[in-house]
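Name: DNA processing SMF protein
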Amino acid sequence: MITNFDLYRWKKAGMTNLGVNKLLKFFHRYDKKISLRQMGQVAQLKSIPNFIEQYKNQDVSKLREEYKIYPSFSLLDEIYPERLKEIYNPPVLLFYQGDIRLLKTPKLAFVGSRQASSQGIKAVQKIVTELNQNFTIVSGLAKGIDTASHLSAIKNKIPTIAVIGTGLDIFYPLENRKIQEYLAKNQLILSEY
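Structure predicted for DNA processing SMF protein:
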């Protein structure tokens, strides 16, 4: 049986999300053990010898400690968002901080400019205020519209999820550190890194 830690090890050895997804489909279809070389072939890796070397040289106990720093879930888990599974090349593993139950709520995503106009920010505030807690707000944590959507959600006591493009231990942009820390404790932050 494939575990989330197995997926983590494959990724750390250089396998891409696309490669892992191909491998998961193979195992689902054939349910048999294969060698690392065969895994590389199924995943269509560019450098199978490099993958094998990286995999064999892993310090498994150190890697396991690193893996345990933040909780995670994968495509194999029931909590993984169904719509995210439908995109091309979905992330295999997602790490999180906060209330994972927010993934099961109705969601409304906000995207927009990092150099948001005052009119754009006011529009976000108005929309979020009028939602009246019927949706969980989802956005990145970049400057501009992303930040405005999260701040409006917090102000209106509406659940919010930040999907960030860095590791959970990195604050980017740095000016959003306090928002990120708040969301990690009281809402939800997701990252594939």
